[in-house]
Design goal:
With 143 residues, the protein is an all-alpha fold.
């Protein structure tokens, strides 16, 4: 695969994963505002280790996690592409995004559809493995 194509794909994965966290927030909103609607397996936020936390509080916590992960992954993508954000930010931002996302997934385990959860875990783990174990050979574009 040509270097430009690889750069586009890898940055695109980071960007799309960030945007997907926005989709998770949209699902939380949909469930909260339309409790009788078909949600495709999405349910209200529930923290499995603290089931007595009120639904609104759990939703606010979930939104905090997904907002932080979304911002981190978007920053990572922009840094990777050397657009707006300094290129040296992409790795730390990707690590922070993956760690926050995995933390949120663990905290809200069993709340959302298995496919979405597994796909998010796979991308998060892939990012961490690529950065820490493989050294993620692709460097940001020169300025």
């Amino acid at each position: 695969m040509p270097d430009g194509t690889l750069r586009l794909v890898l940055g695109g994965v980071l960007l799309l994963h960030g945007i997907a966290h926005g989709g998770a927030m949209g699902s939380l909103w949909w469930v909260a505002t339309r409790p009788s609607a078909d949600t495709g397996g999405w349910t209200a936020a529930r923290i499995w280790i603290a089931p007595n936390i009120a639904g609104n509080a759990a939703t606010a916590i979930a939104i905090g996690f997904w907002t932080a992960a979304m911002v981190a992954f978007v920053v990572a993508a922009l840094g990777f592409w050397n657009v707006v954000v300094p290129p040296e930010w992409w790795r730390p931002a990707a690590v922070i995004g993956a760690a926050v996302s995995l933390g949120g997934i663990a905290l809200f385990a069993g709340t959302w559809p298995p496919f979405n959860t597994l796909a998010a875990v796979a991308v998060n783990v892939g990012v961490l493995v690529a950065i820490f174990m493989l050294g993620w050979a692709a460097e940001p574009a020169p300025r």
